[in-house]
Amino acid sequence: MRQAAPLVFWALALILVSLDHLGADRPRLEPPPIALGSGQLASGGHCSGR
Amino acid sequence: MWLSRSLLVGLALLGTLLVMFLAGLQAGLLVLLGLGFGLVLQGFRFGFTTGWRQLILQRNPGGVYGQMLLMSLAVVLSVPLTLAHPGEIVGAIAPISWSLILGAFVFGLMMQLADGCGSGTLYKAGAASSLSWVVLPSFIVGSTVGASHQPAWLALGGPLDGLSTTGDPLVIDLGQALGAPSAILLSLAGCGLVTYFAWQRARSRPQQMSDCEGCPPSLKPWLVGGLLLAILYLVHLVVAGQPWGIVYGLGLWGAKIGAGLGLDWSGDAFWGQAPHAQRLLDPVLWDITTLTNFGLLYGSMMAARWAGPPKTSAADQALRPIHWLIGLMAGLVMGYTSRLAFGCNIGGFLGGVASASLHGWVWFAMAFLGSLIGVRIRLKVKMP
After folding, report:
1. pTM
2. Are A17 and B285 in contact (CB under 8 A)?
3. What is residue B171's three-state secondary structure?
4. Which residue in chain B has the smallest CA separation from A38?
5. CB of B305 within 8 A of CB of B126?
6. Looking at residue B217, what DSSP letter applies?
């Protein structure tokens, strides 16, 4: 279990992330590499619920 | 040995480059930060759950000292930034709601049964703990459902609603209310008070009490771990524009898998609303917490496998079917309650305290109360 679980997780993650990425139809407006000094509002999902 | 180490590093770099290619430079930087979080958490065994349990049962204050060092450094470094760059750099600010009080209490209880909070479950899973691999999937399910129910829980209000001028549960942002110096001083006083209580508890340790099983041999790993996590926390804030979080990403994974299986979230009170509905449509690699979570899992795996394949621990060998069931249930409840409480030990406690939001301290008080009960249940059911 402890040997197989990480392998299963990463294999599943790779498959699902690939499918998810290929299925998206919106071009990305790439965010600035570093938020500080970018002048853009933070927009990522966060635990406090924004 | 060098071959396995090269493979571990090579795969980390390859993954980071791939993410960078698919989702941009910021995404790659966030994966690297996640790797750093995982390396430090596993490398220094910096666990919130373990630290609290060692204080409660063995009166060993090392973990709490390390956590308070982390909180102190994080608040000193991040509050001036968030106030100087409003909007561009945001804190974890949340209301004092009934959902926070109940959610943090139950989360604190369950994290002792699951032997890990949000970050703890991830880094222990990365380090091949069998129990954490049972906790993680149910945590994801709980987090997805908890987020969906969060608006209904928030509608119950909070104990300080009478002081609110808006009618919503009261938000106490010390930085906005008092300015950076006073907010930082108050937060440091809170850290000092907790450190004092931990010190007092350690002083009252009876001479005949047995040695602390599983405790680090000295205080150093806790303090170095706390220092490194504070630095990573600051860099994450600068790069992402928001505090480090864990749970949002896990809930998003569950919601996306649900959508893939045919669930329609469009009418959902949380996942059907902006900005979460858009995140469901966007690739998961555009989500900040997902990137650091992936990095954390891999980073802890790297740290655990650096000296060779991890051996089966005594705790893993002692697990019985009832423990698997408890872990499964604890993960589900932790995932659910973490959304009511605006995050786990990272997003709710560290993020809240470091942002000088009073909800972070309420989170800590309630979760610690829950842990006082959780460690006793843990002993009763003989969790290894």
Report:
1. 0.95
2. yes
3. strand
4. B88
5. no
6. S
Measure CB to CB from residue A47 to each of B26, B92, B279 and give the nearest one. Answer: B92
Q: Nearest C-alpha of chain B: how many angstroms from A2?
A: 5
The residue among B284, B298, B313, B320 with the most chain A CBs within 10 A of its CB, best to mutate, is B284
Q: Which residue of B has its CA nearest to A13?
A: B294
Residues of chain B with pLDDT under 50: none
| B245 → closest Cβ in A38, A41, A46 | A46
Cα dihedral B328, B261, B15, A27 in deg (nearest 10): -140
Closest-CA distance, A1 to chain B, in angstroms, reads 7
Q: Can you read off the two tokens belonging to residue B224?
A: 């170095």
**pLDDT value at residue B77:** 97
Residue bearing tokens 């690297």 = B32
Q: How far apart are CA B173 and CA B179, in angstroms?
A: 10
pLDDT at residue B218, rounded to an integer: 83
A36 touches chain B (CB under 8 A): yes
Alpha helices in chain B (DSSP H): 2-23, 25-43, 48-58, 62-84, 98-114, 118-126, 130-154, 174-178, 180-203, 220-240, 247-260, 276-281, 288-305, 314-317, 321-340, 351-354, 358-380
pLDDT at A50 over 60: no
